[in-house]
Amino acid sequence: MYVIVAGGGKVGANVARSLLGMGHELTLVEQRRDRFERLEVEFGHVAMLGDATEITVLERAGIARPPDLVLAVTGDDEDNLVIAQIAREGYEVQKVIARVNDPRNQQHFDLLGIGPTVCATSGILGLVEHEVPEHGLVRLLELRREGLEVVEVLVGPDSPAAGKRVAGLALPDGSRLVSVMRHGVAEIAVGDTVIRPGDQVVAILKPGLEDALRRALVG
């Protein structure tokens, strides 16, 4: 597999190191000369000096082959957006992954259809939510292309769902319970599954139904 990694910071360098260790071919593009010189010592000809938002630089990196994968992982969201757009729209690269540094910029990537994206800040916040049992609903996964979300809900003793069968729950249209974890053991949620206080319920739903699902399961 041939990969272009745009951005030679800690993220880009670590990804490049891992991909090379797996036997893949790649070019690592970095625009800062001081950083490039350090990368060149370790990566040799794999490292390339240049601004990956410029078409001529991407062409020198082999964007016209085209690569099997382009990773836009610079520390600048605007640059990552431009790189991803050039790769996908200008050279029809089928697989593009972009780094989102500021979660507030995620909407711009979504509007332009750039994905999948990776945001460390959002990931950490998701883990924080998961570790706080008082939180009513935790987003586990967002399937942007499919227009779906996977969430987890902790059922409390006063929950309107406690003691009821899944088939008897007033769930919003566009949502479905997937599994129920009780005492560390997960089971597939079916119509006869009874929800108990303390259960961790995983559901899949359309975006915008979070509050309705929370009311049905948490109250």
Q: Which fold does the CATH topology of the largest domain refer to? A: Rossmann fold
Find the CATH superfamily of the largest domain.
NAD(P)-binding Rossmann-like Domain
Give the helix proportion (percent range): 25-40%
Helical stretch tally: 7
Low-confidence stretches: none
Q: Please write the CATH class name of the largest domain.
A: Alpha Beta
Strand order of the largest sheet: 3-2-1-4-5-6
Mean pLDDT: 89
CATH architectural type of the largest domain: 3-Layer(aba) Sandwich
Kindly describe this structure.
The structure is a single chain. The strands form two sheets. A six-stranded parallel β-sheet has the order 3-2-1-4-5-6, sandwiched between helices. The chain has a five-stranded antiparallel β-sheet with strand order 7-8-11-9-10. It has seven helices and eleven strands. The N and C termini lie far apart (50 Å). It folds into two domains: 117 residues, Rossmann fold (3-Layer(aba) Sandwich); 96 residues, Alpha-Beta Plaits (2-Layer Sandwich), CATH 3.30.70.1450. 32% of the residues lie in helices and 26% in strands. It has 219 residues and is α/β, with parallel strands linked by helices.
Question: What can be said about this structure in brief?
Answer:
With 219 residues, the protein is an alpha/beta fold. The protein has helices at 10-21, 33-43, 55-61, 77-90, 106-111, 120-130, 210-217, and strands spanning 2-6, 25-30, 47-49, 69-72, 96-99, 117-118, 137-143, 148-154, 175-182, 185-188, 200-205.
